[in-house]
Write a structure and sequence with these properties.
Cobalt-precorrin-4 Transmethylase, domain 1; alpha/beta; five-stranded mixed beta sheet; Methyltransferase, Cobalt-precorrin-4 Transmethylase, Domain 2; elongated
């Protein structure tokens, strides 16, 4: 029996790979990690395509009661579905390691994640520094701007992921993130890129000064912001595609 960790990509139910789809259809139990990102479709859309009932795995189940998922894979084929790629979050790596320690076979089926898909804006992905997240509760939280400062010093691009709570329909918007950055001494005139729904057909990408990113409409979540570091002229040219 096997624990399959399956990436769903970033768009809708059709983003799953053929190997992933075949695997899910053959599994006895199917869990969907439902708190680290947001698909552009409903759970019922997934269930219709897979022909399987999906068990929602919220933060408490994944972080505190993951043994329930792992133990089921001792005598069943279990699919653990992750939006994006299944190995881009520490929590998921922990599940992988704990299952391995218990002698359970683990098979990872990768897919695109924000870390690769962000390349669409035109900045070279290997020139990004440490990725950071801006949390909802950010008063006196300095880690995101400290990471930005470190990346800026080294001439690297910075990707800010904005907090989200899909279960409760709560998503940090570009405006709130910009206000946080500027209030923590980020240069309001620095070039920045505001993004929504990267990896989908209706992704929104806007290039402007950090303070002016709030002037655009982005539509639905999820959102992120990029502040470029030192750019090659090809990167500069690519960003011109997204300027209004």
């Amino acid at each position: 029996m096997t624990l399959y960790m399956v990436g769903l990509g970033l768009s809708d139910e059709k983003d799953i790979s053929l190997r992933g789809l075949e695997t899910v259809k053959n599994c006895d139990l199917v869990y969907l990690e439902s708190y680290t990102s947001k698909l552009q479709c409903s759970v019922s859309d997934l269930e219709e395509l897979y022909g399987k009932k999906i068990i929602l795995a919220d933060r408490e189940l994944v972080e505190k009661r993951a043994e329930e998922i792992i133990s089921n894979a001792k005598d069943k084929d279990v699919a653990f579905l992750v939006i994006g790629d299944p190995m881009c979050a520490t929590t998921h790596v922990d599940i992988f390691m704990r299952a391995k320690e218990k002698g359970i076979n683990v098979n990872v089926i990768h897919n695109t994640s924000i870390i690769s898909a962000i390349g669409v804006i035109g900045l070279e992905v290997y020139k990004y520094g440490k990725i950071t997240s801006i949390p909802f509760l950010n008063e006196n939280i300095k880690a995101p701007v400290e990471v930005y400062g470190m990346n800026k010093r080294d001439g690297l691009h910075t990707l800010f992921l904005l907090d989200l709570d899909p279960i409760n329909g709560k998503f940090m918007g570009i405006k709130e993130a910009v206000e946080y950055l500027i209030s923590n001494n980020a240069d309001e005139n620095v070039m920045a890129i505001g993004c929504a729904r990267i990896g989908t057909n209706d992704a929104v990408i806007r290039v402007d000064s950090l303070k002016n990113l709030v002037n655009y409409e982005y539509g639905g979540a999820p959102y992120c912001i990029v502040i470029p570091g030192k750019m090659h002229f090809m990167e500069e040219d690519a960003l011109k595609l997204w300027k209004e």
